[in-house]
Amino acid sequence: MKVVFLGTSSSTPTKNRGLPSLMILREGEQLLFDCGEGTQRQMIRAGVGLRKRLRIFVSHMHADHVLGLAGILLTLSLTGRQHPLEVYGPSALKTFIEQLKDTFNFEPQFDLLVYRVSSGVVYRGDGFRVEAFEVKHIAESYGYAVIEDPKPGRFDVVKAKELGIPKGPLWKALQEGKPVVVCGQVIKPEDVLGPPRSGLKVVYTGDTAPTRAVIDVSRDADLLIHEATFDDSLEGLASDELHSTARQAAKNALEAGAKKLVLTHISPRYEDPCLLLSQAKEVFEDVVVAEDLMSIELR
Amino acid sequence: MKVVFLGTSSSTPTKNRGLPSLMILREGEQLLFDCGEGTQRQMIRAGVGLRKRLRIFVSHMHADHVLGLAGILLTLSLTGRQHPLEVYGPSALKTFIEQLKDTFNFEPQFDLLVYRVSSGVVYRGDGFRVEAFEVKHIAESYGYAVIEDPKPGRFDVVKAKELGIPKGPLWKALQEGKPVVVCGQVIKPEDVLGPPRSGLKVVYTGDTAPTRAVIDVSRDADLLIHEATFDDSLEGLASDELHSTARQAAKNALEAGAKKLVLTHISPRYEDPCLLLSQAKEVFEDVVVAEDLMSIELR
Question: Quick check: is A64 catalytic?
């Protein structure tokens, strides 16, 4: 699984930071989370083309998180996409898209499927699911978690040999969770497999004030991508505007037991984000501030 | 007068070209022509801030020419603009803006004045005017010409001395076009001034197939900024889609007697625009292909 940060600013772009967007790539699937103005160009810069298996998830209907959807839809239409496109987000997303179609006399030749999300699983891919969870921002603001299915436990070769199971198709069947019969005796997968191993979990908060929901969904996450609009000195402003500080993001990562934290949605006032980084590091060690076009591989 | 090219692609952005937009700066005034997605970020890259005396002119309601307006309006609002903003364009522009306000629950604290243009003078600035002219593209497609007022003719010092006009306030009055009295004799400005000198003229075509209107308005223009979406081999496509080839743009520049030609709105298929340039050069010598962030000073 690879996470590519396409835009890491908040509200307005800066010279170095585009408006919010990030993509998770997993075995040919593209999951685009938010798409601020300029996202399609950031994708070109990142060397990420728009593929057939693209799906788009919008966290909330603030313009800086969604205006770039228009350009993406138009480009997909111009470049002849035929495959249906699924777009997920709050209720107003459908209205926004209908208005675009109306204003620009735009009717894509592909099926454009717009789903209103609510908390829970919103998309089930091949070997993973995407869950939406409500966060604390404007009405209908969601974060998203990409959660891989648990993988079967490790195959215990020694035990398999002890049980007299010949190497070959029978091992494979057991690894795939199917019972087999050896010399008239039924052997169940759990006889030779260790406990199931959890898959990767990546959480993206969208915009939010500190909230229990983020901690709950991020339990043991491999990667928590948390908004961190402000530093400590603007905690009051963060609270008023329902955003988080870098330290609050780090506290959430610590409490959730996340393995790694990435801070994003950086206010344009921080030309150098070292202040945010140092305040977060006082709480949680494995933290970085996202940069545009930065990518993280997870295994 | 300075022209800054902010986006020079057509339809979709490329690594090197953003979507259509250019700005003309003149004595503190900013005239922004078209604003495709990403224009506000291109302005940051070009080192051009959004100033009080900004006005925006939209050529036609194709999404690649106007989507960036949304981000600009939101940023102006976020950054506390108080001064009214005038936006000029086709009738659907007002609807687009109303829908934006509605979808994003956005009410700027400044007065947003949206004017529907028709052929003729649409804005009169200090020492210049902006004229819209109909071009040949979709319904309600306009080009714009920025035309400086004629300047008074050169002051003939020798003649002024012959007429016995003392150097000082009387010279100044005559230079400003006011008659003066010397020894009981009325001296008119035309007695000491040469013929009025024309001001600068810059023409931007927006999107258009070759049309007489461009030639007429570009008569003796100092700079013609002409769309040149395709090369000769795609003249048929250009005709079908009501665009121009580089050669057609050059022919217009030649017939109009323009001094300089800039080709813009380059199809993403031309990674290297030398083909367009060479075909235009066969017709018109003083031609360049626009690049993003390129600027031209006119005096």
Answer: yes
**Euclidean distance between CA atoms B267 and A63, whole angstroms:** 28
Q: Please state, in angstroms and as integers, the Cα–Cα distance from residue A210 to each residue in A20, A137, A213, A242, following that order.
A: 19, 10, 9, 8
Torsion sign, CA atoms B14, B16, B17, B21: positive
Residue pLDDT, tens place only, A158-202? 999 999 999 999 999 999 889 999 999 999 999 999 998 889 999
Compute φ and ψ for A66, nearest 5 degrees: -140, -15
Residues A37 and A22 in one domain: yes
Pairwise CB contact (< 8 Å): B45 & A15: yes
User: Could you tell me which of A215, A225, A245 has the C-alpha nearest to residue A294?
Assistant: A225
Establish if A296 belongs to a structural domain. Answer: no
Same domain (yes/no): A76, A162: no
Give per-residue pLDDT as tens, B5-63: 999 999 999 999 999 999 999 999 999 999 999 999 999 999 999 999 999 999 999 99
Q: Which two tokens stand for residue B67?
A: 């989507």
Residue A183: inside a domain: yes
Cα B97–chain centre separation = 22
Chain B residues near residue A67 by CB distance under 8 angstroms: 37, 67, 70-71
CA distance B291 to B279: 17
CA distance A50 to B21: 24
The token pair that represents B175 in the structure block: 């230079």
Chain B residues near residue A106 by CB distance under 8 angstroms: 63
Asked if the model's pLDDT at residue B196 lies above 90, the reply is no
Give the Cα separation of B96 and A67 in Å (integer): 13
Rg (alpha carbons) of chain A, rounded to whole number? 22
How is A200-217 classified by DSSP, letter by letter? -EEEE--S-BS-HHHHHH
Query: Is B65 an 8 Å CB contact of chain A?
Result: no
Q: Which residues of B are catalytic?
A: 64
- Range of the structural domain that residue B42 is part of: 2-150+198-290
**Alpha carbon of residue B225 to chain centroid:** 8
Residue A259 lies in a domain: yes
DSSP state of A232: G
CB B48 within 8 A of CB B26: no
pLDDT at B66 over 90: yes
Chain A closest-CA separation from residue B94 CA (Å): 10
For B40, the enclosing helix (H) or strand (E) is helix B39-46
Co-location of B143 and B6 in the same domain: yes
ipTM score assigned to the predicted complex: 0.89
